[in-house]
Amino acid sequence: MAPRRRCAVCGSKQWRKEPSSGLITCSEGHVLQSYRNETSEVTELGPHQMRKRALKSRRKKKEWQSKADPKLYHGERGRFHYYQCLQLLLRLQAAALIRAWKLPPEYEVVCRDVWTLHLSLLPTPPTAEPYFHVQSQNGGQSAASGPQTAEEKPVQAKDELDSNDIDDEDAKSTFSLSTEEGDDMDLEDLLRENSVAPSSASEDDDEDGSGPRVQQDQGQRKDKTAFRPFDSPAANIAILMLACWTLRLPVTYMDFKRLIESYDFPYLDPLRLLPEAVTQHLTKHTTKALSPQFPPIPLHVHGLTSHLAKLMFSSYNILTPECNAAPLLWRATRALQGTPTLYLLAKKLGKVVSLTLTLHYSLSPALRRVKMRDPEHHKYDNAPPEVALIAILIVALKLVYGFDGKKRVPRSGNDPACALPSFPDYFAAMQAAEDAEKTKRPAFLDTAPGSLESMLDLDETDIDKYIVFCQKALLPPGERRAKIAVLDEYFPLSEPLATLDADVATEQPSPEPVPTKTMPATGLRENSSDLRPGRAYLIYNSQDILGTLPDDYEKLLRRASDWTGVDEHYISGVVERYEHRLVRWWRTERGADKPEDSVSC
Fold it and tell me: Furthest-apart CA pair in the chain: how many Å?
């Protein structure tokens, strides 16, 4: 910058530098004296001049390498491997059921066929990922094709470029057509949705899950979870249950739950049963998905089973038969300490209320519609069969005993209540059976809260059984267990482990205990002033959250809940619906309400 001094000629302080000559002049054009502009530009360098130059590095740059474990499978390959693990577990579970329930070998064949149908009916079936993975590793070529020669590569590359140009032109020409058609289709969908008037029937269908639903754009909404209920290990139990229905086996969902809790059925911590060559490829997410912490809820498993049966019928026209109701009803009768007379009463009531004994109500014939507003199916028609059967038994018991604190005595010999025991004897027998189950069942297998406060409460025999149970539940079986002989080394027992294991298996209580003594029948009282069975029938509202139930009726519901594994509130709702159906049938048969036939709610 020019110095801030005055010009010696005119005294101006405004200086500027000429761009052409490099001289500094004032505003009047006077040249500043004693100023020299030097340049250090050198055209040629001497022999002793030091110079710097950048040397090109000849080393190769390191490629970016992923820090992920190559043994772990991700993406579609991991999903395919996840289904492989589920298939191995299904084979182990089918073998465990055949061994525990002494099923025929054809059961495994049925399970295999149902598994194949289950995979084909998934919303997103697993792809042949190992084949695609081999292709990606070989650069998009199949393993059977050999390496390309040098002459074939340029020709192929040129053909690919030409085909890409043609494809781009076709894509540009078809893009406008597809967008116009897509806009027209969207407009038609909107007009169609606006033209459909909402109705009560459609709302019921939507609530039940069978009605039409508006399809959502898959690109707009993505699933937050990678695993759906149809992909969970509980779906394996649904497949096994559907195979039992196919063979007409009278099993319940609680039978599976009891086997799971006793670790006779591989469901909890099943990865210890799989080979190491399979488990080493599992990520933490697939490991968590394959290792449930608790047995599944019966209603959840029934939802998966009924959904699979409905899809099999709608897609492949494969009809799942009805449940084997006769032995299942007898099991429910014995669970409530009933007699053959109670069994016959429940059978007749089931015919009156039109019980649905299929896995899904769509598999059974629809109701006859007299009016347009009449429904095609009843509420709770999709309830588990064991819940429906035990609800009918509760209705029959309420007709006989009332369960409202009022005494009921039969007055005629034709009354079926004469063949049933008195209410005090029946209730005492049911309470004794419940207590016997608690005493026979090992305390460490009881999952009820407060059943076992401390392990110090166990005696020596129970402790030995508990150690054997831990060996079965925690250690891997077979050859892998021999490598980790923890119990034999640190807890040697005088009695062989096989004997104790057999004792644990044989001492497990049966689901339907047989009473030790016969209950006497109720005596006739012709001139009694007490109510007769079936009179002053009370229907308790299951939606009344502030209402209280009688103690006897609440214990009966709790007993039914323990046998079915379903909540008491759900069973109470099923009983209420069946009672209303029975009242409608009674009014239709009798023609009009009579004072003595009134029903209070």
Answer: 150
Answer for the pair 234, 297: CB distance below 8 angstroms, yes or no.
Answer: no
Tokens 């029946």 sit on residue:
426
* Token representation of residue 179: 């967008």
Higher pLDDT residue, 92 or 535?
Answer: 92
* Phi, psi of 188, deg, nearest 5: -65, -40
pLDDT of residue 46: 67
- pLDDT computed for residue 117 by the predictor: 95
What 3-state DSSP class applies to 518? coil
Average pLDDT (337-357) is 91
Cα–Cα distance for residue pair 581/354, rounded to 1 Å = 9
Q: What is the pLDDT of residues 554-589, one digit of tens each?
A: 999 999 999 999 999 999 999 999 999 898 888 887
Percent of the chain with pLDDT over 90: 30
At 233 the pLDDT is 92
Instruction: Give mean pLDDT, residues 192-218.
Output: 42
Name 17's Cβ contacts closer than 8 Å, sequence gap at least 6: 2, 23, 24, 25
Residue 156 to residues 150, 210, 380, 530: CA-CA distances in angstroms? 10, 53, 65, 99
What is the CA 23 to chain-centroid distance, rounded?
Answer: 90
Q: How far apart are the first and last CA of the chain?
A: 105
For 303-395, list the strands marked E by DSSP.
Answer: none
Q: Are 243 and 111 in contact (CB under 8 A)?
A: yes
From the centroid of its chain, how far is CA 62?
A: 46
d(CA 504, CA 472): 11
At residue 80, the 3 state secondary structure works out as helix
Q: What is the mean pLDDT of the chain?
A: 76
Q: What's the pLDDT at 203?
A: 39
Q: How far is CA 507 from CA 84, 266, 318, in A?
A: 36, 20, 40
**How distant, in Å, are the alpha carbons of 123, 164, 225, 275, 429 from that of 289?**
18, 43, 11, 17, 44
Helices (H), 106-151: 106-120, 129-137
Taking the CA atoms of residue 333, residue 335, residue 336 and residue 338 in that order, the dihedral angle to the nearest 10 degrees is 40
Confidence of residue 23 (pLDDT cuts 50, 70, 90): confident
3-state secondary structure labels for all residues of 167-217: HHHHHHHHHHHHHHHHHHHHHHHHHHHHHCCCCHHHHHHHHHCCCCCCCCC
Q: Hunting for tokens 């409530």 — which residue is that?
A: 336
CA distances from 315 to 207, 307, 570 (A): 22, 12, 31
- H helix and E strand count, the chain: 20, 4
- pTM of the predicted model, to two decimals? 0.69
- In terms of Cα–Cα distance, which of 378, 386, 226 is closest to 299? 386
- Both tokens assigned to 401: 């005993």
Q: How far apart are CA 447 and CA 257, in angstroms?
A: 11
Q: Provide the pairing of β-strand 24-26 with 15-17.
A: antiparallel
- Rounded to 5°, angle at Cα 553 from 552 and 557: 120
**Tokens 């909402």 identify what position?**
198
> In the prediction, which pLDDT does 144 show?
43
